[in-house]
Design a protein that fits this description.
The chain has helices spanning 2-38, 47-61, 66-70, 79-92, 97-123, 128-140, 145-148, 154-172, 178-191, 199-213, 220-239, 254-266, 273-279, 281-290, 301-319. It is mainly alpha-helical. The longest helix has 37 residues, at 2-38. Helix 12 packs across helix 13 (273-279).
Length: 320
């Protein structure tokens, strides 16, 4: 009986791994097809100063220092992207934007698989086929083709990965444990991937505060962890450069901001209040059902609440 049960579990695990493998092959294949059809080896736009002038030249001249790696690129400090770019340059012995596109495609697929794995832990193994199918349909469509067809776009995939990982570790584990501190470290890397990475710290702080207020985790450690996260958010905001020539791109008043916010929350539907409600209905229903009664801090659905909070923060950032 024990052998039979072990065999069943092995078969079930193999089935899961095969599903992930099929997803990776199909998704990566779609991205590679896009690169093959429309990719160009000529560096594009920000690559000339962001990579060639401020990274590769100092590296090849032997003058590269920490200042180059942490220096702002517009409002961002893309430390993680620069490290990977240097690694690809050293391994390939030349600068090849097509190689970067292929590498980024693989990272995109792996990041999505990581996110699916975490959601599977929350919703159960039976949800895996639906999660894989939904993710493929949503992310395989090249609506943001610039991210796939420019080598200098890895930061968007990295901020996604580090942000999701930060939420998982800071929400799923008790404050000041080893895995919680891992989440803090990943949050720093999210900020060092893209300026908007700092908002995952705000989302984690918000969930921690909710857990404390609702009494699900009312202890001193939880409150101290919220304070630390808010301090980190403030430091990150202070370290984010403000460029005078980018002021014109920001919302000038509340009307502009709300209009942009509505458009962000409506996508891919037409910008309207009805679209905002329909598009975000699943999240709203989940939050309503989740907060109807007191939830223990160990309930992994807090992670989904954190994801919703994080996505709302991103929408606010984009609208502003």
């Amino acid at each position: 009986m024990k052998t039979s049960l072990t065999s069943f579990r092995d078969s079930e695990n193999l089935n899961r791994y095969l599903r992930y493998l099929v997803f990776f092959v199909l998704f990566f294949g779609v991205k590679l097809w896009l690169v093959r059809q429309f990719g160009n080896p000529i560096p594009f736009w920000d690559q000339w100063d962001g990579e060639a002038g401020n990274l590769y030249k100092p590296y090849l001249d032997g003058t590269l220092g920490a200042g180059n790696l942490f220096a702002p690129h517009n409002e961002h400090r893309i430390f993680t992207t620069r490290i990977v770019a240097l690694a690809l340059l050293a391994i390939n012995k030349s600068w090849n934007p097509l190689l970067q596109m292929v590498f980024n495609a693989g990272v995109h697929a792996l990041v999505l698989m990581y996110c699916i794995r975490l959601l599977e832990k929350v919703t159960g193994r039976k949800s895996l086929p639906a999660l894989l199918a939904f993710t493929f349909v949503v992310f395989a469509v090249p609506y943001a083709w610039e991210n796939s067809l420019a080598g200098f776009q890895l930061q968007f995939y990295l901020v996604f990965f580090f942000s999701v990982a930060t939420l998982w570790h800071t929400i799923s584990y008790q404050p000041f444990t080893g895995k919680w501190w891992t989440g803090i470290f990943l949050g720093v890397l999210a900020f060092l991937s893209l300026a908007s990475g700092i908002f995952v710290i705000a989302a984690a702080a918000g969930i921690g505060l909710l857990q404390y207020i609702t009494g699900t985790d009312r202890n001193r450690k939880r409150l101290l962890s919220v304070g630390l996260l808010l301090l980190m958010f403030a430091i990150g905001a202070w370290l984010t450069p403000a460029l005078p020539h980018h002021v014109e791109f920001k919302a000038k008043n509340l009307t502009q901001f709300l209009g942009a916010m509505s458009g962000t929350l409506s996508w891919p539907m037409k910008n309207s209040i009805l679209s905002v409600v329909v598009r975000n209905a699943p999240a709203l229903v989940f939050l309503f059902l989740f907060f109807r009664k007191k939830r223990p801090a160990g309930d992994r659905r807090w992670f989904i609440a954190g994801m919703i909070a994080w996505m709302l923060c991103q929408s606010v950032s984009i609208a502003y």
